[in-house]
C-alpha cells in the first residue's frame, strides 16, 4: 500500500514531484471521454522515466502471438491498443532554454485532477538562469465535442528582469508501444501540413499479416496566443510544430490555448472524407473561446454527477475513493458508441492491450444499470450481439458448436495469448448470458432478450451443450479442463462456478425460447430434440459439493490441497504473484479472487444464509485478493452476512485499490473495470439493494466510521435517492411514476 496523493473529496492532488512515482502519478491523473484518453504525462519534454500514452477508442493493432510451442486453435495475434500520435506536445523555453522538470529547480509544485469538472491542472515555479517563471498547465478531453482536446498553458514572469518566452506546440508521430512483442513503430504518416499557427498529421497504421483493418487518423491543432509567430521549418516527416515567442516583462503573463481535433477512419471511410471532417470540426471549435468549450464540457460532467454521485459524510478517504471510481469509469465509457467497450485499463496504460474482457458483463453492467440510462447498458449488450460472427469462429477453432465469446477481443475474434486463459476460462460465456438476464431483470425491458438476446443465448447454449461430456460412471454431465475466475488454478475439472453458470444458461435459454415470437423461434432453429437434450443436461449436471463442510467445492481435488489460510504466508512473500513461482502458486490453495463466491454473489437470493456463511467462511481466508475484481464481491457478501468490519475493510480496498496502490501494480495503468467495486459494495453491500420479482429491496446499515451516506439510482424510469444515517434510512422519489419498494422487510410507497 502506497499513498502518493492527498485525501480530498473532489480532487486527486499532490504537491510533490517525485521522479520515482512519476508513472504512478501519470496513471492516477489519466483523462478520457470514451472516444479517446491519455495518461497524465507532461505536455513538455521530460527526460526522466515516463510512460507517455494516448489511446483512441477502437483503434488497435494485431501483435503477433509468440509462444514456444504452437497449439492448434491458438489465436494468431494478440490485439493491442496502440500509442497514438503525441498531439499534446508543448515545450516551453525560457531565454532559449527548455523547461525539463527532471532537471530543473522547481518550487510550489501542484498536480491536480479535478474530478467534478474532469480537468487536469499542473503548476510550479521554475528557475532558469536566475529567472523565476510561474507555469500553469490545464488540460481537458471534451465530452461535449468528443473529438476535442483543449490545453492552455500560462507563463508568468516572477523575476525582476525581462525574459524571452517561447512556446513550441507540436505533434509527433514518432511513437512506440512499450508493451509490445517487438520494438516497431505502428504509424505510417500519409500527409502533414504546417502553417503559421496550425498544423495537421494524417497517418495510417502499418500493414499487418492477419487481415484486420488498418486505421487512419487525422489530427489537427490550432494555437491561439498573443506571442509572435515564429517561422520554423518542419522538423521531420513525422512531426509538425508551430512556434511562438516574445518578451515577458516582470509580473507579466502570457498564455497559449491549443485545440486538438482527432478523427479516425472508424467514422470516415475515405481519407478525403476524414480530412474534410478534421478541418470542419477544427474550424468549428476554433470559432469558440477556450472557456466556452470547457464550460460545455463541464456542464455535461455536472449532469453526470447529479445522477450518480455518492456522498459520504465522516470519511474523506472513502468519499474520494468512490468518486475516483465513478470518474474513471465514466471517462472510459458512457455508452455513446456501441462499437466500444470497457478495457480493464481503459485509456490509462497499455497492459491488457486495451481490449474487452468478461469484466464488463460481470461487474460493469450492474453499475451502469443503476446510474445511467438503460440505453448505456443496452449498448454493452449490443456490442456482444454484433460480434457473434467472431464468437462462432472461436468455437469452431476448438471443434465445437455454437458461439464461444472471446476472453480478450476488439472485433469478436479471440486475441489473447495464454492458452489456460484463452480457451479454458470459458465461464465468460455464462457471464455474458447472465448480463442479459441482469439487464432484463433490472429494467423490466424484454425487447432485447426476446430478439437479439435470444440469439446470443441460443448460440452460447449450443456451445455449452457441445463442451460438456457425459460421465457414464457418475451418470452426470461434466466439464473438464477449465480455468475459473480464480486464475491461480488452471486446467481443472468441474469448476463449480463454470458448471453452475453453464447449467443456469441452458435453463434460462429454454425459458426464453418459450417466450419468443414464432418468427424469432423460426430464425433460431432450435429443434425439440435439442431442447430435450439441453433439459437433460440441466437435470443431470454435476456440481461438486462437500456436504460435511456445507460448501460448494471450487473444483475436483481442491479439498486435497494443503489448506492453510493466507494469514500463514509471511508478509514479505505477499503478493504471491510477485514472489512465488507459477508452479508454487498453482499447487497452493490460495485463491486470486472470488470463484465459488462469484457465483454466490451472482445468484445471492438462491442460496440459504447457512450456505452463504459456510462458503464465505471457508473461502475468504484462502483468498489473497490479488485480482482487482476480488474485494467488491467479498464486501457485498460480508455485508449480506452482517460481517460489517469485513465488509468495510473490503470496500476500502476496492474503492482505493489504485489510489493506495494496494497490489503494487498501478504504475502501468488503473484497474478500470474494478472501479465498479466501490459502487457495488455500497449499493449492493451496505445498502443491501436487490431486485426481486421486479421490486426494489433495501436493507441498509451504516458503517461505524461514517456519519451518513447517500446515493441515487435509476430504476425503471425513476430516480430514487437513498440516504442512510444514524437515524435510519430515508428514501426519496426524485422523478418518475410512484412505486412501492421494500425497506428492511416492510413495504414503502414513494411519490414524487
From TrEMBL:
Residues 689-750 form the Glycoside hydrolase family 65 C-terminal domain. It comes from the Bacteria. The active site is at 487 (proton donor). Keywords: Glycosyltransferase, Transferase. Substrate binds at residues 358-359, 592-593. Residues 14-266 form the Glycoside hydrolase family 65 N-terminal domain. InterPro entries: 6-hairpin_glycosidase_sf (IPR008928), 6hp_glycosidase-like_sf (IPR012341), Gal_mutarotase_sf_dom (IPR011013), GH65_N (IPR037018), Glyco_hydro_65_C (IPR005194), Glyco_hydro_65_M (IPR005195), Glyco_hydro_65_N (IPR005196), Malt_Pase/Glycosyl_Hdrlase (IPR017045). One of its GO terms (biological process) is trehalose catabolic process. Residues 323-679 form the Glycoside hydrolase family 65 central catalytic domain. GO terms for molecular function: alpha,alpha-trehalose phosphorylase activity; carbohydrate binding; hydrolase activity, hydrolyzing O-glycosyl compounds. NCBIfam families: PRK13807.1. Belongs to the glycosyl hydrolase 65 family. This is Maltose phosphorylase. It comes from Secundilactobacillus collinoides (Lactobacillus collinoides).
